[in-house]
Amino acid sequence: MSDNEDFKDSTSKRHLLVAVIALFSAPLLPMVMGWFTLLSN
Asked: For 16-32, how does the pLDDT look when each residue is reduced to its tens digit (9 = 90+)?
C-alpha cells in the first residue's frame, strides 16, 4: 500500500511540473514564433 501511495505522489508531482511548464511555455510560444517571423523578413 505504501508503495502505491508513493507512486501516486510522484505522478502528481510530475503532472504539476508538466502543468507549470505548459503554463509558462504557452504564452512564450507565439513570442518565439514572432521572433522567427521577424528574423525571416
From this structure: 899 898 888 888 888 88
